[in-house]
Amino acid sequence: MNTPRLALVHRLPASAPDDVTALVQAVDRGEIDPRAIVAVLGKTEGNGCVNDFSRGLATQALKHAIARLARRDLDEVARDVAFVMSGGTEGGLSPHWLVFEVRNAPAAPAAPAEPETGPAAEGVPTLAIGVAITPAFLPEEIGRMPQALRTADAVHAAMRAAGIADVRDVHYVQVKCPLLTRARIAQAHGRGRDVATEDTYLSMGYSRGASALGVALALGEIAADALDDARVCRDAGLYSGRASTSAGIELMENQIMVLGNSAAWRSDYIVGHGVMRDALDVDAVDTALASVGLRMGGELRGSGRERVAAVLAKAEPSQTGAIRGRRHTMLDDSDIHASRHARALVGGVLAGVFGETQLFVSGGAEHQGPDGGGPVAVIARRAP
Amino acid sequence: MNTPRLALVHRLPASAPDDVTALVQAVDRGEIDPRAIVAVLGKTEGNGCVNDFSRGLATQALKHAIARLARRDLDEVARDVAFVMSGGTEGGLSPHWLVFEVRNAPAAPAAPAEPETGPAAEGVPTLAIGVAITPAFLPEEIGRMPQALRTADAVHAAMRAAGIADVRDVHYVQVKCPLLTRARIAQAHGRGRDVATEDTYLSMGYSRGASALGVALALGEIAADALDDARVCRDAGLYSGRASTSAGIELMENQIMVLGNSAAWRSDYIVGHGVMRDALDVDAVDTALASVGLRMGGELRGSGRERVAAVLAKAEPSQTGAIRGRRHTMLDDSDIHASRHARALVGGVLAGVFGETQLFVSGGAEHQGPDGGGPVAVIARRAP
Amino acid sequence: MNTPRLALVHRLPASAPDDVTALVQAVDRGEIDPRAIVAVLGKTEGNGCVNDFSRGLATQALKHAIARLARRDLDEVARDVAFVMSGGTEGGLSPHWLVFEVRNAPAAPAAPAEPETGPAAEGVPTLAIGVAITPAFLPEEIGRMPQALRTADAVHAAMRAAGIADVRDVHYVQVKCPLLTRARIAQAHGRGRDVATEDTYLSMGYSRGASALGVALALGEIAADALDDARVCRDAGLYSGRASTSAGIELMENQIMVLGNSAAWRSDYIVGHGVMRDALDVDAVDTALASVGLRMGGELRGSGRERVAAVLAKAEPSQTGAIRGRRHTMLDDSDIHASRHARALVGGVLAGVFGETQLFVSGGAEHQGPDGGGPVAVIARRAP
Amino acid sequence: MNTPRLALVHRLPASAPDDVTALVQAVDRGEIDPRAIVAVLGKTEGNGCVNDFSRGLATQALKHAIARLARRDLDEVARDVAFVMSGGTEGGLSPHWLVFEVRNAPAAPAAPAEPETGPAAEGVPTLAIGVAITPAFLPEEIGRMPQALRTADAVHAAMRAAGIADVRDVHYVQVKCPLLTRARIAQAHGRGRDVATEDTYLSMGYSRGASALGVALALGEIAADALDDARVCRDAGLYSGRASTSAGIELMENQIMVLGNSAAWRSDYIVGHGVMRDALDVDAVDTALASVGLRMGGELRGSGRERVAAVLAKAEPSQTGAIRGRRHTMLDDSDIHASRHARALVGGVLAGVFGETQLFVSGGAEHQGPDGGGPVAVIARRAP
């Protein structure tokens, strides 16, 4: 922890789920050090639901590309880099990659030739990234208290890794979590245990929900005694305003990435967040912007557009069937999945604010913000 | 024309395409005079494409309801009231009816018991509505110059009917236009004539396009000599910033409704518009708001929300495949029609601005605004 | 019951959900007596799921048409004629109406000028139709034993009305049943009762399931003591091979129509059925055909095609995720609802057998046939 | 050509687009020689339209697996093995791989321990496979006569490679062909040339169509002078009853694989075909079956099911909007692409005949069979 570090965020376009051209070019230009990449979050153009193969195709392409560029073994890359693919670019959302790097800060704080890597002055909190993983879960622990509690521990570990002491300095927690399969359920049954749900699809929601509640515990957003197994995916009043969780079949542990601000870092970026009360809550975006020194309006959409490095938000249809008293039809549409409508809506609301469609809006928001709302985080370049 | 008139706009929720409860209640409460209704614009929850049966169901239900409430014959209602149903409530858009009434202003300008019908002071321009129809077209005229030119004439006739002399006082022109069917094409062929397109689906676009160009001609937005048959649905540089056109199988003429402001009226409403350059162009919304004495921001979404009576906009995917340089995927999605994505996007952008999802956002925007953009009109209650 | 009756079936094309042209023409030609119509089953072209407005539009159009043609009051028609609309014409299925008439047989068995109405010889079992309704259910009874038991009673009543004594002579039982709404659930709660499910969409399945189990009870397909509330929608081993049930919001009772053969009738039609063990089970179709004097093969698809008056079948994806050991993808497709895939599949299988796409294939097959299979009934013109 | 060869076909299940488990196991069991694989045809579970990423994911997974299993370089595998992925498993179609091998026949015709590789007696025509490629096309040649003519030449070359002299012994010709991209069109324009279509999506159809017409020319199904540029994708009366063509972005030449029967081979399989006149034409399937010594009926669906090694068919909605005089709704459904309906329908028809859902039914049938119909080929194990 003695050498100061710096975090970089690169927002790169993708012309297809397996298009890594922009990544290769950024490496070629020396803007990205492929060995420093710690995570890639991707917005891909599948349906974001069960049969979305754009996510798998993207992960494959990115893994192979980074392995080749970094001259590392494929397995090593798979182990050391977090790949979180969110399917669904409904409305005007634009497929893109968010590539996160962690580097050691240059020893001498000389005047930077390239603003993106310019070190911050000492003592100013800047973007900090910390990662941690939980132990592997047993199938019967998924979607229940053990998953929540160990996620909370891992969030604290990731904060320590990032040099963040105060939970108020945490603005976004990405969690990748496991799901139940037929085989995993059978394994639990074989040991005489039941599972949170026998529906493998629903198990994704339970895992996301318990993980988000773990984040809420870690950040003090809910009290430990407020939580028990029966509240997971049922008590919508319990949530984290900073968690974004997604479930995948390829792991049995929770992988956590914490984004916050820390004076121990010398990044050229800062991060902030707000909690949207409903899908139209642009005031929450204003809160997020204010905390990174920006504000809504024409300037943000114009010259200020360059200062925004990444926008991350969750979207879900309100279960009440209404938004501010007006009926929505998302939950009754048997042609388009409700989560697709919700991403389109929140994507549109945010696109109007930012004048930008490269927005990481993802679905599956169990216990991630209030019903129909969700967290929104903004990573911005620091003011010059 | 001697008796001053007043126009009323009622925005009513619909819980289903055939739900006319709110209309019946408004009549029961004396807020709507069913015999004064001149038009109903409806946002219904079908897919807004070929097989959208929510529009037909809504039209049937509304016609029967108005005939019953007004104690008029069904055919009479069909003849005298314009029904324009726009399918597609993607994202968070909320199904609703916009009911337009034209009444004679009360003789004595006594203090109004009911604010909605309160007369404006003399000489102040307020919402004016005028309707007109073209002669019936021959099949070979649809999507071509005859349709455009006669639409232009009818727009002028509707302006006269509304007492609007200056084209700058026109802010929204709704056109309902015919389409080609197999039988109509055969009829033209039988007389040795060809038609604009032999594809009946495409004929809807040609009819909408030629109609919009007719509006543009009438309003001086394009020069008459700039137009010929070959430019319809091809030269995207020609458009009206105030036209909204929709094609239906049940008519062979164009039905025109002009919304503008006129000092000859005593309405409690005014109308304004802007032209969105692309789907994210909230500055155009600001222009529309400014012209009706409102402005974007927290107040509009809060207490000012009540002053907005109706928002009408067109949405289409940009044919470039990009928005402000970012790729969109609307045109490549074989699961969701591009026009559905576009409505979701523009609906989201506007919902963020207005804090409201009862927005009349419709698709099919040939020559109605620039590529990827479109007109946006706002009808507001006048400031007290 | 003394005057012999005859039943007629008319299969009529529909060019749109509200196209009643073929019905009007058949009445004009004297082929249909509009006052004798007892039921219309319609295959309409919506998605067959929640937001299918083609069903409502069709019902409206048919009701108005029959009232006009029969010079009867709209309410009377709504009361006396069963309208059962099944949405979804996936694959090649063709939208059509099945119009059922019940008439008194002509007194003198003179040589019929028109084969469709020719009376059968005395004593030969021919198509018989019987209808009955249950008392209205309380919300808490829907999807539970009371609904099943009273449906069983009503099936027996409909058999008596049809003059069918032996359950083996019943080949198809159409049931229209209620569903739960928010208001109905609240009403039950207000009386301290719980309901089968608080999910209004799921309530449709429970109501269909309990109704089908009622048919199975009535026909002796399952034993009364095999049944309890907990088995509804859970024990797939219990089913009727002759029930077809559909849920609608507009009623609180079950409406039953029994189709069978009875020597008391003088119809020119007979009905038979088979039970498809899975979606590919054409041998079950052969069984159905055999019982009406037909067999699969080139003749059926060719000259024999005219003898088939109606084909009615149920379709559902197998919950195992496989058909004859091969994986299907219906349950994992988030773009197309599983029931739509299932109708397309069964529709294709049957279309290959019959050389015909006017097939009444409907979804929602809870307890109507085994998992992944379902009943198939054939109504045929009797051999000359 | 002196050493007799034998062709093998393996039909393997896939539990996901990137599931190569069955392939790996077949290699491990010694049933497949990975170095002898010449082609893999895959039915994958995407939408089969523009944004179908299951095809790319499958190709990636198969290429990597075969390279690993055969210990060959990835580029070599890409060059030597044809990968043809057809997306879309609508209705009950089951995702699977058809792996084609070409081996030298064992020297001594000893009694085979394993029936699948048992050599046929000398002089008996058995399954023969030949491949060939055209020279690379210029963009302006795609969808036009040069593509057709050179495809015809390449079909003849592939026939020679397969030792097939008589065109009547050819039963299925798979063609992979290029498409136009923005860049390719610009390149043609740069040289002052126009292209068949400037719509990149439509260019796929033109390329498939011209390629199919090339096959028709080669097989004498149409006369050379019947063909010119203007007939491609316009004159539906011209077609091949044995072509199956698919367009891909990764090549500029046409890759041809001919399947036929030749006495120079010692395969344990034979191939036959029929031409479906419409989507319900099971008589054409009977023709195909008869030519490989099988017939429709209960035996085929039962014990005979094992004798069928592969079924390959094309499916498209009839452009007339009807099947045997009955309206279909495929072309009017804006929620489900018409080609998806068509695959579901033909898949269902064939599944009923074969009692099997591992059927290679693909869409995009320009000039591949008559309007609404298409070729169907059956590869069968020879009778013992």
TrEMBL record, chains A, B, C, D:
E.C. numbers: 3.5.2.15
Annotated control of activity: Inhibited by barbituric acid.
Pathway assignment: Xenobiotic degradation; atrazine degradation; biuret from cyanurate: step 1/1
Keywords linked to the UniProt accession: Hydrolase, Magnesium, Metal-binding
Subunit structure of this chain's protein: Homotetramer.
Family: Belongs to the cyclic amide hydrolase (CyAH) family.
Protein name per the record: Cyanuric acid amidohydrolase
UniProt organism field: Bordetella genomosp. 9
